[in-house]
Structure formats: structure tokens, C-alpha cells
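Figure 2 data, in text form.
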Amino acid sequence: MKAWLAPCWSDSRALLVGRVVSGFSRCFTSSASTLSKSPSQRPPQKRRHRNAYEKAQARQRKAANIARQATLRRERVDALGDPVMGKTTPFLESLRSIPTQPGPTVSDLAAPAAESRTDEPSADDAPSRSSSTMRPILNYGVRAAELRDSIQQSHFLTGPLAPRDGGPIDPEAVDMHQYLHENAVAAMARIVSLGNGSSIDRRRLQTHECIEKFGRHRTDHFLAPKPPAALTRNPLSPPAPEKTPRAGRDTGSSEVQISLLTLKIRSLSTHLAGPGKKDMTNKRNLQLLVHRRQKLMKYLRRKERGAERWQHVVEQMGLTDGMWKGEISLR
């Protein structure tokens, strides 16, 4: 190619390449008209003119809606109930009043044993059994009737013996024996008095009352079993194995564990609300106990299908729906 044609050829080639590149760019990019403009380039929108009366009405409607939402929120919380303490029931009041109950007196222990054999109720009067019907309440698991029998036996065994010649017993020996016996009875009354016991003794008695109240070795006599499942059993399947008979007292059923956890939760909550408000360790323990009780309540309600056993523990322990429904958040 001649030298004077080289610049013209290079210029035309560059022009052709530029047109091809611009064509490809238009194929893979949107046109300038379709690109959205930045907010600074958009024309300002005209706001509809509203007078002061309409603005005041809008503000009133918003305030009414917010107030209504707050009211509905409070109603839902009140309907669920307190997720920690629950309600106060006569059974809980009787357990709480155990430490303040007066101990036995000398006259109580000296009374005939046949007058108060009411410490062992039968299955017929088991629903009405409570701590308030047991007077007096003794420490160390001692029953009043048994203690009275032992005192009468000791009074007989330690009495002065009659002379071998058949003469009368010395009155001074009789008076001294009676004086020493009364001192011994007063000492026994102080020993078995719950007011002189520790918090561990009171907690042990509360645990015993919960086991006797909700244990299935007692509730099986007066509570109906849960309703049968909706699914029918296949007649060709093998029969279900028989349940192993219960031996001794029931201490591990869900309702017993729920009642014991409720006592611990109420005690810890009272402690944290008073002198232990900065006790972070027990606050964490309270959260663990609350969620453990929630799991047990869900399990018991699902297994019993809302039967009498579930209703019994809910009514006696003052349990609420907030203790097992939804998420429990303690602050």
C-alpha cells in the first residue's frame, strides 16, 4: 500500500471498530432514557394540601390505634397470667404457713391416742386432704398419734413399782415420776416442733405434702384416667403389655415434679425480689427451673389430653397458661 493511503486506511479502520464496539455496548446496556434518575434529579412531588382539621383527625386516629394496641397487648398478657409465680391457692397458702404454725403443746401430746387418728386419711377423703387439716404438724416425719402412743408407753414403763409386800406406792415417788414425765413431754414437744427446725426441715415437709397431694399412689383412687386416643387399635396387632404395678410412693410423675419445681420457683422469685436482687447466679437458676417446668407442663398436657389429672395440678398449684404457652423471657 502506498504511503499516502496509510493514514486514510488507519482512520477508517478505527472508525469501523468504534462503531462495532458502540453497537455491542448498546446491546448489553440500557438506553439513557430507561435509566432511573438520582433523587437529586427527580422533580419534587407535590404534596396534597391538608388543612389543620384533617391533620388533627389523623393524629387522633393514630393515637387511638396505638392505645388500642397497648390495651390488647395487656389483655393478652393478663389472659396468659404470670409465667413465674402464678396464682395463689389455698394449698399454696397452707404450704407457706407451715413454718409459722404453732408446735404441739404438752396437752396435745398427753391426749389419748384414739382422739386424733386423722393423720392417715383413706382414699375417699383424699381430695380434701391438706396441711390445714393436720394439727399439729410435727418435725422429722413424726406422727402425733405415734408420739402419743410412745409417751403413754414410756409413762407406764417408768412408773414406780409397787412394794413386794403389797403395800401402797409411795406418794412422793408418784409425784416425782409425774413431774419428770411432764418435763420429758415438754422436751419432746420442743424437739418435734417445726418452729424450732431449720429451713431444710420445712422444705422436707413441703415436699412430703406435695408428694401426698399429687402422687399417683393417691390420685389413682379418685381421679379418672385420661380419655382414650382418637386412633383405633389394629385388632391384628399384639396386645399392649400390662403396666407394672406401682411400688411405694410416687415421687417421679410429672405432676409431682411440677409441684416441687413450683415451690422452688416461688422461693427463688421471692428471694430475688427482696434482698437478692443482685444475685445473678440464682437468677440464672430461676430461668432454668422455669423452662424445665414449662417442658414438663407441655408433656403432661399432651399426655393427659387435658384430663382430670392435668386440671387437678393446675387448680391446686395455681398454674397459668403463661407458664407453658409461647416463649418465657425473664428480665
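Caption note: The two ends are 91 Å apart (CA to CA).
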